[in-house]
Write a structure and sequence with these properties.
Blueprint (H helix, E strand, L loop, with lengths): L15 H4 L1 E8 L5 E6 L4 E7 L6 E5 L6 E6 L6 E4 L5 E6 L6 E5 L2 H27 L7 H28 L4 H11 L5 H10 L2 H4 L2 H15 L10 E3 L5 E3 L7 E7 L4 H17 L4 E7 L4 H11 L4 E3 L8 H5 L7 E5 L5 E4 L4 H11 L2
Helix pairs in contact: 2-3, 2-8, 3-4, 3-8, 4-7, 5-7, 8-11
Length: 362
Amino acid sequence: MKKIVFLAAGLWCSSAAFCQQTISGKIKGGNGKIIYLYDDNDNRAEDSLLLKADEAFSLKVKSAGKAVFALILQGNDQPMLFTSGKENIQVTSDAATFPVAQSFKGDEDARAMQAYQQAFQPLIAQAQALNAEAHTINGEDEAAKNAFRKKAVSFGNQVTKTGVAFVQQHPHNIASIWLMLNELRNRVDPQQMEQLFTSLDKPIQSSKYGEAISQYLQAARLNGINVEAEDFTQNDVNGKPVSLKSFRGKYVLVDFWASWCGPCRQENPNVVAAYQKYKDKNFTVLGISLDKDKTPWTKAIAHDGLTWTQVSDLKGWSNAVAVQYGIQSIPANMLIGPDGKIVARNLRGEALNAKLEELLIQ
């Protein structure tokens, strides 16, 4: 699960002052709350305002260049996304249902991004429900775990299908490359990602988002299928160093996750099921956590029944192995063969089981 990152892309006006775009509107029930216009690339608000009853707000995009920005309402963890452009944006919403917009006016790209977000709202609600359900499942209840596993796989497929469709339908929109970077990168394989990338308009490919995707694709080629995986060493929960090469001779699923990552916790039952089914057939799992705090990490290991080796340097997104392998969002994984070469990447749900069955069931 990647933190929301909004990067400013290539300039298309001669000065920031000339390019300033206004975001204005009203939010019913927002009295006394602060609304922020946010560009997370600099970890700062572009503009903010204390809302007053029945009064309109007006905020300015101060960064030049096409990018994806967000309106964030105090007390609400979901942003309202939009693409910057030459045309000002007008929006009305309700604090109770934010970030759903009751009305939205902007240029074609901004409207397309808003339509995508509106269509995505049911999936967000589904993700929240799955996160809550994941914490209630008894580790010994196989029926409940199997039912949850099917829900999680279905959810992941819907997210991927929705995102890919948007990119294919909007090759000219900066939002497409943003979605590839933040939603699709670890949901589709590098080959499909490259196909999507080359289908985009050249200015979109050369944006800052596009540069990040290019770096990802380059790393994927270096660490691609049938390429020998680079060795690494990190400490396990007891402080003992564990190296990747120590697993040579086995199929090992290198699984990047974190205790705070909802989609990771949703996927864990699938990994547990695969481990239990194939652990006696020359297969194991090596978990790499992007946690910063040992306590929630070890609690999640126990709660989710992750009985395989777990390592971490407790540096969050700066985890050395995650950086080494270009991991930008989680969950993510790679299946490495007995010869140390990468067999597959980002296998989830039934895809993981199918691949292991193909390799291990003779």
